[in-house]
Amino acid sequence: MLAQVRGAFERLLEWIVIALLLLLALEVVLGVVYRYLGSPLAWYDEIASVLLAWVTYYGAALAALKRTHIGFPGFVAALPARWRLAAVLLAEACVLAFFGLLAWYGVRVLQMLAGDTLTTVDVPVSVTQSVIPVGAVLFIVAELLSLPPTLRAIRHRAASAAADLDP
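Structure (tokenized):
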């Protein structure tokens, strides 16, 4: 069941990231064409930076789900078997706490930005900046969905290492 949820979540994030990358690429091409024609788009830079931020947050959640985000697997693997689980759990607690705070303060920032719009287009800043709390929550969900297989792998490696030590 968890594997199915994880798979569906992975596909959803992949589609979101693909759509955002396509939008960003289209927007860049439009910006270049319009600039070449002598009519640069006023909103080009602002929208491109928003799309880049969205790609970053959604892509980070996808990377976390695949356990390819920033980490120290070599360090953990080099630890004695009895310390590996503790190291992974401590790291997970730190990551979850950080993204929990990011989500909390992201919502607070949205409340402060209520009523503001982007400079070049009439889009609420709270819509563009909603990626902060949404991305943080998606990162937390990704971490939690990818944690059980990681813990199983650590336990399996510890059991294999113990079996290798038995004569």
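The chain has one domain: 2-165. The chain is about 80% helix and 0% strand.
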